[in-house]
Every structure is written in structure tokens, then in C-alpha cells.
């Protein structure tokens, strides 16, 4: 059988590895299509490449992006980049004055191929609030939907305490203006904050959370940040007292099931008078009927009231 070299195969099938991010023959990523940080698999967005040739100037930084990717994902960028009637389109340069280089870089890496020049950065606790805010500002509905889906599916049990606290803190203070005009995002954010608080209040995480607070105190910060961290920390340490269901034990009800955990009464197997009834207690704050196991859990209505006071 005749042997073909990679070069001859590439030529024969019209594939040029210099213009394609993956070596089709070896099924391995190539590096010639992008400029990477030294010793890294991540793209150097401060250097241009063949496809990333549109500069975005932010402060003292200049990032190079692919205008096709940005135009397809944002009407804002599409109008500025494709319309020569605007100054940005005429000179081929977009200057952003009211954002930090760090936040714009976060947006760029969330929408542009970064790792190996193939994959954008995934949405996580550290970038979701920044990306959500900029999606609203720069009209990126698809990326915003991805962020909302991330919050809906978020499971803090499998995450580090530091990451859960970071997300909880950012959701409390970073998106207030977005909550005002987007009811869906506001509801999703409250639900995510609630599950984060439940996890942070867990007795198994208090020691690690305390250690995290000591580290934050050593780093310092502005007076406003220190005050906000203290308010959030108080909610975590005193969550049981602040947000626990307000139960009136004189108002027990015989309901069909717990409204919080969906626990149903056991199947009746006998007519014994000694059988313990399935008793639910009524929470005076949220008007939910909760079972014995959920009496000591956190009440979402009380938490929502705390959030509203926090943002006011």
C-alpha cells in the first residue's frame, strides 16, 4: 500500500494546517492559527492574529477580537463594526471608556475561543455576574441565556466554599440595576442566592467559611466592601435565627404534603388508633405548610425580605 505523508494528504484533500485549528490527520490542535501566551494554551488577546484583527481599546489595554464572532453575538458590536457611518466602523477601532480592562477581558474570553484557540472560557462563579451585566449593556441575549441557565442549574454542594461565597456576594451587590428591569433574572438570582446561603450555613462548612473571612480581612479593601462582607457574613453565621421558618405550634394542620420538601404522608396500612398522624406546621412568614424535618430549615420569604432590605 502506498504511504502518504501528512503533507501530501493535506494537499490532496485541500486541507492546510496553517489555516485550520485542528490537524485533521492527527486529530490534534494546531497552534499556527493563533497567538498564545508564552508557555500557555491560552490565547494572547493583546496580540492580533489572522482572524482577531479588530482592536478594542480599554484604558491602557488594547485587545484584538474576531469581528465576525462579536457581530454574530451582539447587535451593538455588529452595528459599530459593520457600519462605516460610525466612527468606530470607519477607523476600525472601538474605544470603551466606562469599563475596566479586566471586565472587558472577561467578556472577550467568555465569547471568543481561548483555550487552545478553540474553546471559550466556561461560565463559572467568578465571571457570571460580570458577563451578565455586560450582556445587558452590549445586547448579547444568547450569552445572557447561558448565564441564566448556569444559575438555574447551579449546585453549591459540589463547589468549594470560597467559590460559593464569591457567587453569593456578587449576586447580592453586582446586578442591582439589572434586577430592576429583568424580572426573570431577579427571580433566578434570588433562588441561586438562597441555595448558596443554605450551603454556607451548613455546620460542616462554618469552619472553612470562618477561615475564608480571616483571609479576606487580611487582604483588606474599601470601607464599602468591608461593610458588605460583614453584612453577608452575619447572614451566614446567624442564618438559622434570621431566616428559620416562623412556626406557630398552635396552628398545626393536617395537610396533603410538605410545601418545602414535597414529603407526602405515609400510606395508611392499618386502622390503629396509635398511629402517629402526619402533622404539618404553618409558617407565618411564607404561609407554607412544612413537615417536622423542614421546621428548622430556612424560609425563602424571610430571605427575600432580607435581600430587598440589603439592596435598598
From TrEMBL:
Spans through the membrane: none
Q: Which residues form the BTB domain?
A: 56-153
Checking InterPro entries in the record gives: BTB/POZ_dom, SKP1/BTB/POZ_sf
Protein's recorded name: BTB domain-containing protein
Amino acid at each position: 500500500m502506498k504511504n502518504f505523508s501528512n503533507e501530501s494528504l493535506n494537499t490532496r484533500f485541500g486541507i492546510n494546517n496553517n489555516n485550520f485549528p485542528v490537524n485533521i490527520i492527527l486529530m490534534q490542535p494546531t497552534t499556527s492559527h493563533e497567538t498564545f501566551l508564552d508557555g500557555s494554551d491560552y490565547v494572547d488577546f493583546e496580540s492580533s492574529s489572522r482572524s482577531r484583527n479588530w482592536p478594542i481599546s480599554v484604558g491602557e489595554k488594547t485587545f484584538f477580537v474576531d469581528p465576525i464572532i462579536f457581530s454574530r453575538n451582539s447587535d451593538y458590536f455588529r452595528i459599530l463594526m459593520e457600519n462605516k457611518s460610525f466612527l468606530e466602523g470607519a477607523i476600525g477601532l472601538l474605544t470603551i471608556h466606562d469599563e475596566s480592562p479586566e471586565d472587558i477581558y472577561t467578556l472577550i474570553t467568555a465569547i471568543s475561543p481561548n483555550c487552545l484557540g478553540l474553546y471559550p472560557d466556561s461560565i463559572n462563579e467568578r465571571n457570571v455576574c460580570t458577563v451578565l451585566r455586560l450582556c445587558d449593556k452590549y445586547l448579547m441575549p444568547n450569552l445572557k441565556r447561558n448565564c441564566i441557565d448556569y444559575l438555574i442549574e447551579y449546585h453549591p454542594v459540589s463547589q468549594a466554599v470560597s467559590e460559593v461565597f464569591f457567587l453569593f456576594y456578587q449576586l447580592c451587590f453586582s446586578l442591582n440595576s439589572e434586577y430592576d428591569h429583568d424580572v426573570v433574572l431577579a427571580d433566578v438570582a434570588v433562588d441561586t442566592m438562597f441555595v448558596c446561603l443554605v450551603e454556607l450555613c451548613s455546620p460542616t462548612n462554618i469552619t472553612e467559611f470562618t477561615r475564608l473571612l480571616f483571609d479576606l480581612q487580611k487582604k483588606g479593601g474599601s470601607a464599602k466592601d468591608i461593610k458588605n462582607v460583614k453584612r453577608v457574613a452575619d447572614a451566614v453565621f446567624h442564618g438559622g435565627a434570621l431566616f428559620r421558618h416562623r412556626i406557630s405550634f398552635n396552628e398545626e394542620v393536617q395537610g396533603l404534603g410538605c410545601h418545602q420538601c414535597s414529603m407526602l404522608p405515609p400510606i395508611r396500612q392499618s386502622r390503629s388508633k396509635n398511629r402517629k398522624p402526619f402533622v404539618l406546621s404553618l409558617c407565618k412568614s411564607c404561609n407554607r405548610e412544612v413537615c417536622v424535618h423542614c421546621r428548622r430549615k430556612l424560609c425563602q420569604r424571610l430571605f427575600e425580605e432580607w435581600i430587598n432590605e440589603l439592596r435598598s
